[in-house]
Amino acid sequence: MFILPSLSLPSSGLPPSPVSRWFPVERLERSSHPALRMLLVRTPLMLQALERSLEKGIPESLKVYGTVYHVNRGNPFKLEALVDRWPDFNTVIVRPPEQEMTDDLDHYTNTYLIYSKDLETCREALASPGTINWKQHLQIQGLQPGLEKVIREVAASKSVQVQTTDTILYVNPETLQRLAPSLLQRDHANKLPLKTSRPKKEIDDETFKLSAMEVDNAGLVNGLWGFGGNERSLRFIRRCIRHFPSFCLRGPEGTPVSWSLMDQTGELRMGGTLAEYRNKGFVAHIVYRQTQALLPRGFPLYSHVARDNPYMHRLCQSLGSVSIPCGWHQWNCVPLASSR
């Protein structure tokens, strides 16, 4: 019997609001530099309000929305949210606290999720002292192509080189219907699906059993993940398996042969299949079962696919996932001094 991993809080709605007044947000410590003063939002009431506000910016805000969604439901990665002002913010940056980012070379941990309604404010936020530690290897993720120019300009001023990864963003149709129904109605001629489609190819349920991944299985994922293959990525994968729902099919010997994980932003990621089991529809079966288990719990579901991966594009489309024009973007940043 497959048991969905339990999370610390129920996913049906926000956690109960505490009976208390609204506490003021905390200000980051600043030097005398007249930069934008980012605010650190830590109270449950404000984080819940932030989640509701981010919902209005979907799909561009989905990466940050998904992160805050899980911050509000246990916060297993111990993340914190920064805004330029409250409550009418322009820019949101979610990151680990400083005490979590102890390895200057670990960009998997040193990850910043960004959404901005105003790129000039975003520029000021990125340059603001105390917001981003540009002396570390880090990565920035977002769903707005306009962030590219801003990030590169600020990085250049900090003597940091940037490598950009642009891929296609896919969003689950039920997630769009719940959070951004206008996107499903934008072009009736496209006949966009309103629900996840069941895979046409059946699998042998007696031989291949649906299960949850175990932390000890992280090495399999690390060996096939395009962004992985090293000790730091292995630690990240273990952490994701430990804290978020992961699904796999186990073969006759009881070891995973195909899988799909979730990261701290709520994105379905790191899917893979052992070479000898490919072209059997395993990933489609896993993702379908994954969505059927997580959608009733209110999870916002989305993923990204490399532009040169036609197989995964066909798979996402066959399941009814909708490609979104804004795309999925990651900026890997390395200080020039450490790259020599």
Describe it.
- α1 packs antiparallel against α2 and α7 crosses α8 (231-243).
- The chain has 340 residues and is α+β, with helices and mostly antiparallel strands.
- The chain folds into two domains: 26-167 and 331-339, 3-Layer(aba) Sandwich (Aminopeptidase); 196-319, Aminopeptidase.
- It has eleven helices and 13 strands.
Kindly, what is the distance between the CA atoms of the first and last residues, rounded to a whole number of angstroms? 52 Å
- Number of extended strands: 13
Helix content: 25-40%
Looking at the structure, the CATH topology of the largest domain is Aminopeptidase
- Measured by DSSP, the beta-strand proportion falls in 15-25%
Radius of gyration: 20 Å
| CATH structural architecture of the largest domain | 3-Layer(aba) Sandwich
**Overall shape:** globular
Low-confidence stretches: 1-33
Mean pLDDT: 90
CATH class of the largest domain: Alpha Beta
Instruction: Give the biggest beta sheet.
Output: 9 strands, mixed
Total domain modules: 2
Q: Give the count of helical stretches.
A: 11
SSE string, helices as H and strands as E: EEHHEEEHEHEHHEHHEEEHEHEH
Structural class: alpha+beta
Strand order of the largest sheet: 1-2-3-4-5-6-13-7-12
EC number: 2.3.1.-
InterPro entries: Acyl_CoA_acyltransferase, Glycine_N-acyltransferase, Glycine_N-acyltransferase_C, Glycine_N-acyltransferase_N
Keywords: Acetylation, Acyltransferase, Detoxification, Mitochondrion, Transferase
Domain Glycine N-acyltransferase C-terminal: 247-335
